[in-house]
Amino acid sequence: MSFSSDEVNFLVYRYLQESGFQHSAYTFGIESHISQTNINGALVPPAALLSILQKGLQYTEAEISIGEDGTEQRLVESLSLIDAVMPDVVAAKQNQQNQQKQAVKNETVEANGEEAVVASTQNECMDVDQSIEIPPTKATALRGHESEVFICAWNPTRDLLASGSGDSTARIWDMSDNAATKDRAQLILRHCIRKGDSEVPSNKDVTSLDWNCDGSLLATGSYDGYARIWNTSGMLASTLGQHKGPIFALKWNKKGNYILSAGVDKTTIIWDAASGQCTQQFSFHSAPALDVDWQTNTSFASCSTDQCIHVCKLSMDRPIKSFQGHTNEVNAIKWDPQGNLLASCSDDMTLKIWSMKQDNCVHDLQAHSKEIYTIKWSPTGPGTQNPNMNLILASASFDSTVRLWDVERGACMHTLTKHTEPVYSVAFSPDGKFLASGSFDKCVHIWSTQSGQLVHSYKGTGGIFEVCWNSRGDKVGASASDGSVFVLDLRKL
User: Fold this and answer.
1) Residue 70 — very low, low, confident or very high, per pLDDT cuts 50/70/90?
2) Which residues contact 323 (CB under 8 A, 6 or more apart)?
3) Domain range 5-126, CATH class
4) Domain limits of the chain?
């Protein structure tokens, strides 16, 4: 087996993408000239780099565990990846094996017994109860994308599901009951750029998408640096070009007259949706802006790899508030339904709650053991359809857990532990009674927010990047690393 530096670079690039380090992946891709290689990314399976590393580790372990007489011995303890590339450690392990051959044989008998008990216990924990597992008849797989599908979002008024992919397209799927079911019709929204007199595919990932409030328009953001507005027929209505480099996040305001975007160029932009023109560009971050969220129709918050959060307002030339306290990049921010509290999550493994009334955070929530990728508020409290339910915040982490927080007390209500890989997405049902979570273990889990119990589960064919509920709360959409999109019908379950 041989490999080129281009192949190694591509696997590292893909690993960064799959790990959620989108801006790092972009920078590495530019420096290593990924776009100039002839590698077909659609043919490379998810987690390819980790798979190769794991096989190399297993080979090294096997090499150590073969005795001088050719018989296999049990390795006393598994090698770490760093151990495996250190010759002294490998040699020491080999000597240890040879010296303790007979003892290891005896230990093997005991260990096998213990392993059986452990495996049995794990299976009891991880096997989903048959009544919880969503049957295949209630899942619709949507095929068409040729690369990872990073995002998906339901239209707020109709059962149209939008998805965005690394194949430089977004797609709109009609999931209404009266739509033709055979090979679900899909509208393909091709993201093209002009070269000379012709339009050519941008070959860049679609990184973000958002429907406007009445579901008449879909906005998309792309690594090609352009935001675009499409109608429900899949026609391009407007192209918004002001960012210099990839767009990482994009949101409509509630009124539907402005779109907000965040980019690798360290800026955030408010766009006039009707004209497609840049209304105001904000340049307060010192590093790529990763996420944005509207507080009102004219004010918003932004976060960045610079560890800072700024609250800005249209027509104001300085932030009206800045929050500092995170010690690593801030991945996501979300205002509560009333726009009073701002939640933020970070690679520093903390979740923080901020108020415009004070400079320091209201709560500093420390419980996760790895990076927190995203957060969502429950649709509860005054002015929502659930005015009497307590406000809940959900956090999803690379530590494979989801946590539900009582924000008023600043306490963790439930830790949801059924996932076995990083959790990339969480979404509350419209009534706030359920939470869907999607992980790279290929599973979508649906939980009761009151009890924290798992109520439904489904295993797809690829790592889950995004989960979302339709407006009635009876369907969950999910998008995956293998190019698939699927819809779970929760009616009559």
Assistant:
1) low
2) 308, 309, 310, 311, 342, 344, 352, 354, 359, 361
3) mainly alpha
4) 5-126, 136-489
